[in-house]
Design a protein that fits this description.
Blueprint: E1 22-30, E2 44-45, E3 50-55, E4 60-62, E5 71-72, E6 75-76, E7 82-90, E8 93-94, E9 98-103, E10 108-109, E11 122-124, E12 145-151, E13 167-168, E14 174-177, E15 180-181, E16 183-189, E17 197-202, E18 209-217, E19 238-242, H1 256-263, E20 268-278, E21 283-293, H2 295-300, E22 329-330, E23 337-340, E24 343-346, E25 348-351, E26 354-359, E27 366-371, E28 383-388
Parallel strand pairs: 2-9
Antiparallel strand pairs: 1-3, 4-7, 5-6, 7-8, 7-9, 10-12, 11-12, 12-17, 13-16, 14-15, 14-18, 16-17, 18-19, 20-21, 21-22, 21-26, 23-24, 23-27, 25-26, 27-28
Length: 408
């Protein structure tokens, strides 16, 4: 159950420039979750893999107590728990120190997108020789054993710089799929690499979907949180594809025929169109994005064409500091226009693959069409039709409905 998996890359952003190294603000993060500093689960665990974002970075790191980065018998060399300073030295020049927070353990889930969000790096166990990566084209079955890859379970006993040190760690750990706990069979280092952890668990019954949320808590999930970042906080959220019959289904996602098309290697052309009308402000807006998705891009994307199972939710990183892989190639449809009861509104091209229009009046009830005329080289002619009902009338607006309510 501890085979090496070549589906993620730990980033070490480097440059050979002679200028002084610069670590970006908030640029030292877990190499799995990429969680920004200041969040509950942003602490850097002893013995974990870390990525540094910046410029003019070299290939060597300076370690002065209590700086992180190299594992030994007690975790990262020089690292003590709490606030620490990290510097990078390149070609004889040293960066300004960056503040980091070192915790005993804080698990981060590797994701296929290498952003800390989206499908988790998980292998479905079929046989010792066959353990395919979990995707919407290769979902796990309820009850099946799978292997999750990540980093941050905490230090191990022994020098990891000599060789990997696999072995189950005697730590409290919870794996949840949606709101269901999974039975954990193994939690510890992998056989492939120092600092890389594996969690082997059974997929729980009663939940299926293309993007079931997956989180890990490496600690007591019921303890009171006192400090930020917290020791053993909830990990970043990955997703797991689960289907009892081997075919992932999502009422808001791709159809079976479209999944077959993806499996055959044929790219999909997608459109995301949003039309808003606000009677109170007497404004309306149209937003439209067009893109081409190949199979590999679709499989690592964050449920862009589907939703998590009912009763669950997803979260993801939204800041732009990391290296975010391009998951789609933008397409231009040519001209774009919205036609309705009040005439034709042109929707202008704002960027490659992105069109928008702000309308200084609310849209009236009636039938509308959005079309691109004769089409373009990338997208053929299309016509999307929809209807807008009359605006909702709030009949009891004067009632004191909020006297006993609050927002938290």
């Amino acid at each position: 159950m501890t085979r090496a998996v070549p589906f993620f890359t730990v980033l070490a952003l480097a440059s050979v420039a002679v200028a002084q190294p610069v670590i970006f603000e908030g640029g030292v993060r877990s190499a799995a979750s990429y969680t920004p500093p200041g969040h509950l689960n942003s602490g850097l665990a002893r013995g974990s893999l870390v990525v540094v974002f910046g410029k003019n970075l070299g290939r060597s790191a300076s370690c002065r107590p209590p700086i992180l980065f190299r594992s030994n018998s007690t975790g990262p060399r020089c690292a003590r728990l709490g606030r620490a300073q990290l510097t990078v030295t390149a070609r004889g020049q040293t960066s300004a120190p960056a503040s980091i927070d070192v915790v005993q353990r804080n698990f981060g889930i590797f994701t296929l997108s290498q952003t800390g969000s989206g499908p988790a790096v998980v292998q479905n166990f079929e046989t010792e020789a066959r353990q395919p990566v979990n995707t919407i084209l290769a979902p796990a079955r309820p009850g099946q054993v799978v292997t999750l890859w990540g980093t941050g379970l905490g230090p191990v006993d022994g020098p990891e710089s000599v060789r990997p040190l696999p072995g189950d760690l005697n730590i409290p750990l919870t794996v949840r799929i949606g709101f269901q706990a999974a039975k954990v069979r193994y939690k510890g280092r992998s056989r492939c690499c120092p600092g890389v952890d594996q969690i082997v668990f059974e997929v729980p019954q009663g939940i299926e979907g293309c993007y079931a949320p997956l989180v890990v808590v490496a600690g007591d999930p019921n303890r009171q949180v006192v400090n930020i970042p917290a020791e053993g906080a909830v990990s970043n959220t990955g997703t797991l594809a689960i289907a009892s019959d081997g075919r992932c289904r999502d009422a808001t996602g791709l159809t079976g025929a479209e999944l077959d098309q993806l499996a055959s290697g044929i790219a999909l052309r997608t459109a995301a169109i949003q039309v808003e009308s606000n009677a109170a402000s007497a404004t309306a807006a149209v937003r439209a994005s067009f893109a081409r998705l190949d199979t590999a891009s679709m499989l690592r994307s964050l449920n862009i064409l589907g939703l998590p199972p009912a009763g669950t939710c997803l979260e993801g990183n939204v800041d732009a500091i990391g290296s975010v892989p391009q998951i789609a190639s933008p397409l231009d449809p040519g001209t774009l226009a919205l036609s309705g009861p009040r005439g034709i509104q042109q929707v202008d091209r704002k960027a490659e693959g992105y069109y928008a229009a702000d309308i200084p009046q609310a849209l009236s009830a009636g039938s509308y069409t959005l079309d691109n005329g004769a089409g373009s080289a990338g997208i053929g002619a299309f016509r999307a039709s929809f209807s807008l009902p009359n605006p909702v009338t709030w009949t009891n607006k004067s009632s004191n409905l909020g006297s006993n309510q609050h927002t938290s």
